Structures are given as C-alpha cells and as structure tokens.
Amino acid sequence: MTLHFLTMISPPEGKLAMLPFLRHSGRGAELPSLKIPQAYVAGFKIIAEMPNPAFTQLLAAANAAPSPFATVGELRTWLTSEAKFEPRNDVGKIVDSISSASRLLSMSKWNLSTLVPALEEAARSGIDNFRIADGADFKQRLTALLSLPIFSAAEVKAKELQEESERLLLEARILTDLRPVFGEGIAEGPDAFIVTHTLKLHYWEAGKHKDFFVALDRNDVRSLKEIAERAEKKSARLTEIIDLTGVRHIEPTGDKND
Q1: Which pTM was predicted?
Q2: Do 194 and 181 touch, CB atoms closer than 8 A?
Q3: Between 20 and 30 A from 245 (CA), which of 49, 65, 198, 204?
Q4: pLDDT tens-digit series, residues 153-195
Q5: Which residues are paired to 198 by β-bridges?
C-alpha cells in the first residue's frame, strides 16, 4: 500500500492543501509506504544535508519558541527570524516539510516509531541525489523535529476537523462572458449581447478532483457577495466572543505565503 500526498495550490489565494489518499498494493494491512510530494522534497533534503552545527542551532531556536503557533505561516516567520543561518528561506522549507509530516501523526496508524523510518525510506528512494551529511543521523533529526512542541497537534487537528466533510473546496471562480444574441439574419451580426456568469467550484471528493458549474445572473452575483460579507461579519463577531474567554483561537485557513 502506498500513501501519496496530493498537493494542490489554489489561486489566487495560494492556499496549499495536502490531502492524503491510499493506493493498495495487495500486500495486506501493513502500514503504507510514503511518497514525498515535490513541494516538500527541498525541506527534507536540507534536513539531511545540514551540517551538525547548523541543525543544532535550528533545534535550539525551535525549542525556544514561546508556544505552538496558530498557522504554519506564523511558525515559518518566527523560526526564520530566530534561526541564524543562510540561506534563510531554507528554514521555511524545513517548516513546510515537517508540518506536512506532522499531519500523518494525527492518523491512528502512525506514530513516530513508524513514521520516521517510512520517511527515511521515501527520501532515499524517491529524492534525486539524496545524501546525508557526514556524522548526521537523518532519522534522529526527523524524530527531534517532529517531537517539538511547536509542531503540536492543535493546528493539525483543527485543520482535520475543518476538512472532515464529504467535499473540500479548493478553488472558486466566477467566469464572466459576453455572448452575442443573433436574430434570423446571422450575416447582419448580433442583435444584442448578454453578460453571463458561471460559478466554478473546484473541490475534492472521494479521492478525486471534481468541478461543479452553475449559471448566475447579476442578481445571483450580488446575492453571493452579500452572503459572503454576512459570513465574514459573523466570523468576526464569534472571534470577539472567543477572545473574551481567553482561549486560543485557531484559524486553519491554509498558508497564504505559498
């Protein structure tokens, strides 16, 4: 059984969603093997190739983090500013890769003792020119990073709860066209034009990408705008109520910086 990570970028917001799905190989109920998506290859290569002093510095900075962060973007920004080595964007790539791996730990079949060896196998077999720095222990590095409090399950579980539905929206667009209306005399050109709108919803369902299209008129577009604005106002009001309780508010909206 092979577990692939399907990465999907949703323009224009740049939201990165990682949705795992299983592909059975007919070998029974063993744990699936892993395939690292291209988006996270660079992070795992950096972890493997870092000299020991650089990794020690990264780990020290990560251990000094004040608390778990609400989003991966916040974590990336904080850790990049604290870990003093170049190139600085390497830290962000590491954060993205470890964050993606931490999602698996919320699945009942996985724990550190099974996930780390699977990740090492996937890196060795699936990443071109993969090498480990002299004196480095790749599995030990993965274990140390995945055990950090900043990669706590809070945000991961929040995201899982958000995605615990039959369908997950990945992208929404409204396509606007100008269509001619012809009379009986086509050679004379169109008698009029009509503006049409089509709402396209690109979503994930049952392990597949799917699209749904629905025609809209001007009133429909206006109504959708009003509905969205009302939802934003309700969200803002509920956030204010949460803030009054002193409980941390997690907004698992995806990373806007990807």
Answers
A1: 0.54
A2: yes
A3: 65
A4: 555 556 555 555 677 788 899 999 999 999 888 888 889 999 9
A5: 175, 215
Sign (positive/negative) of CA torsion 37, 41, 43, 45? positive
Residue spans of alpha helices (H) in the chain: 38-49, 52-63, 72-82, 89-104, 112-126, 138-146, 153-162, 218-245
Rounded Cα–Cα distance for residues 85 and 60 (Å): 13
Of 165, 102, 147, 124, whose CA–CA distance to 33 is shortest?
A: 124
Mind listing the pLDDT tens digit for each residue in 109-128?
A: 778 888 899 999 999 998 99
Phi, psi of 157 (to 5 degrees): -65, -35
What are the φ and ψ backbone dihedral angles of 199, each rounded to 5 degrees?
Answer: -85, 125
| Residue showing tokens 């590491």 | 94
Report d(CA 142, CA 45) in Å as an integer.
12
Tokens 């055990």: give the residue: 147
Contacts of 94 (CB under 8 A, 6+ apart): 43, 46, 47, 58, 145
Structure tokens at 77: 């920004």
Q: Which two tokens stand for residue 135?
A: 């004196």
**Long-range Cβ contact pairs of 92-96 (< 8 A, separation 24 or more):** 93/42, 93/43, 93/46, 94/43, 94/46, 94/47, 94/58, 94/145, 95/43, 96/39, 96/40, 96/43, 96/72, 96/255, 96/258
- Can you tell me the distance from the alpha carbon of 43 to that of 119, in angstroms, rounded to the nearest whole number? 12
Alpha-carbon distances, residue 111 vs 39, 50, 165, 194, 218 (angstroms): 23, 25, 24, 58, 52
The closest alpha carbon to 41, from 92, 94, 79, belongs to 94
DSSP conformation letters of 85-142: -SSTHHHHHHHHHHHHHHHHTTSTT--HHHHHHHHHHHHHHHSTT----TT--HHHHH
Residue 215 has φ and ψ, to the nearest 5°, of -75, 140
